[in-house]
Design goal:
- This protein is mainly alpha-helical.
- The chain has helices spanning about 15, 25-35, 45-55, 65-75; strands at about 40-45, 60.
- The chain has 4 helices and 2 strands.
- It has a two-stranded parallel sheet.
- The longest helix is centred in the middle third of the chain and has 11 residues, at about 25-35.
C-alpha cells in the first residue's frame, strides 16, 4: 500500500524473516528503533498480535481495514 515510505523504520515481517505474534519481532522493532517501546506504533487487524505488541510495550492499535487505519493515522496527525 506504500505506507513504508511514511515511517522511519518500517518493519515488514516477511522481509525480516520474523512472524507475528512471536515476541521476537516486537523485541527486534524496539532494538532497531533504539527508543522507548511506547514510541513505536504498531497497527494490526489481529487482536492477538496487538495484545502481544502491547505486552512488549509498543503502542499497538487494533484496526479493521484500510479505512480504519487511515482514520487512526489521521487522528494521530500522521496523515494529511
Amino acid at each position: 500500500m506504500g505506507f513504508g515510505t511514511c515511517f522511519k523504520y518500517p518493519l515488514i515481517s516477511y522481509e525480516i524473516g520474523m512472524m507475528k505474534p512471536d515476541a521476537e519481532i516486537f523485541v527486534h522493532a524496539i532494538k532497531i528503533a533504539n527508543c522507548e517501546p511506547s514510541r513505536i506504533l504498531f497497527f494490526d487487524d489481529n487482536e492477538v498480535n496487538v495484545q502481544n505488541a502491547n505486552d512488549c510495550g509498543l503502542t499497538a492499535i487494533y484496526v479493521r481495514g484500510f479505512n480504519e487505519l487511515t482514520g487512526r493515522l489521521n487522528e494521530l496527525g500522521l496523515m494529511t
